[in-house]
Amino acid sequence: MISQFTMKYARLVCLCLALSLLLSGAPIRAQEPIRVLSQSVESRYRDSFIFRVRARSAVGKIVAARVIWRVRSFSANLAHRVEVAQPAQEVELSYTWRLRSETMPPWQVVFYRWELIDDQGNRYRTPEVQAEISDSTRDWQKLSDGKVAVYWYDRDAAFGEALLNVARRGFDHVTKATGFVPEDELRVVVFNSQADFCTIYSPFGCQSWIGGVAIGSIVLGWLDEGRAASMLNCDADCQAQVAAERRRWFFNQLIPHELAHAFLNYWMGSRTSAIPIWFNEGQAVNNELEGVEEEIERARLLARTGQLERLAVMDARTTIGRNELPRVRDWYAQAASLVAFLYERWGLESLGAIIRLVKEGKTFETALTRVTGLSMDEYEIAWREWLGLREIPPTFVPTPTLFFFPSPTHEPTPRRS
Predict the structure, then answer these.
(1) Which residue has the higher pLDDT, 241 or 2?
(2) Among residues 133, 167, 194, which one ends one of the domains?
(3) Which one, 16, 54, 299, 377, has the greatest CB density within 10 A?
(4) Stretch 65-69: mean pLDDT, rounded?
(5) 342-363: string of b/e by CB count within 10 Å (b at 16+)?
(6) How confident is the model at residue 408 (pLDDT cuts 50, 70, 90)?
(7) With contact defined as beta carbons under 8 Å apart, do 67 and 95 qualify?
(8) What is the DSSP letter of 334?
């Protein structure tokens, strides 16, 4: 039998413990009226992505729910109300996100949570959970070093190792240039044909000229060496050389180029659009493992022949994507040289210094001036001098035109050697 003294002592201990918790600032949490018993997702690539939850209310019936999700590197949340057909104390709910009408790559990372409401007015939102849009339609293989993961299928392990090697080199370069290291791994997904690659796009959304693209923090590309070789009517040795050149371009240029875009998308999110296109593309070209010197020489030739664009026009120029049309190649050469000039004069780390200020909310021009000490006009004049010019360009107002973010990379046209 418990004595009155013992009961009073126990109550006193509990009261002292509660007071000590209040004085220490430690939160005292009551049990949530609504509790999630289980939750899961199911990926049926390329058809749908299903969210499921089982929840219980301790004080009433659950009458309303919605699922909220976001795709990594995209800041906007998506939400959908889920009908509770029969309100009850315990419910099992699901929502099917249809993927066929959307451009959505496999292995995309998704963060989701559920919001549940009972008839007593209690509202509970679950902690955010990470999931991925997995793809079981192909025999995907994966390699990862914890920073970059690569995915491929129907090729040997040596292909995956080579792919991870170039992705790691591109990652290391842009990390050094920015001083930023993503908390999560970036992903590189490679398809074996243009037809396979186009399955990631919404209906009629795939363009025949795209060889690779960065969607959020995922790099996607396709490599078909045999297709490139078959486009030329030449002997077996010639076709073998063309296939080797196509593979080398894919590994050493396309992958590190698009990885630089994916890196900035991960870091900047919606603020990526505050960076001029020429700057974003210029840093991506400078992240390639080869070919940068050729781009700079092309820019020097444009300077000597009086064909350089004004910096104010660079973002106004219509540019769909990197390809071999002379005007587009000239644009990319100038963009590459503008960032190469930055690296040579202010160091590789100047890239991160500028981007960090833009991420904090500064305009690009303000960020450039803080890092270089030059206004945009002064930067352009210094860049022109670096390319070999001494005359100050005439001042004029550019005529803006429609532009598309030039992230996709054009598949190169095979050439007979």
Answers:
(1) 241
(2) 133
(3) 299
(4) 98
(5) bbeebebebbbbbbbbbbeebe
(6) confident
(7) yes
(8) H
